[in-house]
Amino acid sequence: MRDEILRLFGERLRELRTERNLSQERLAELAGLDRNYIGQIERAERNVALVNIIRIAKALEIEPGELFAPFSGARLARLR
Hints:
Helix content is 64%, strand content 0%. It is mostly helical. The N and C termini lie close together (5 Å).
């Protein structure tokens, strides 16, 4: 289950970042994070801290909940 959660979160982050035409480097800069950390999140290699989720959401100019869209409804029920 952990791997699936990290994968879904990373895919969502990449989707939101690319929709805004931001590089990993630029997003990291805006969020005050390291570029490698953004890449690791997108590749499901890191379990992102809550404080960093907030930083990323602010940098993307979205509500933090938008990062969790993949975890709603039936998809959430299927996670094990």
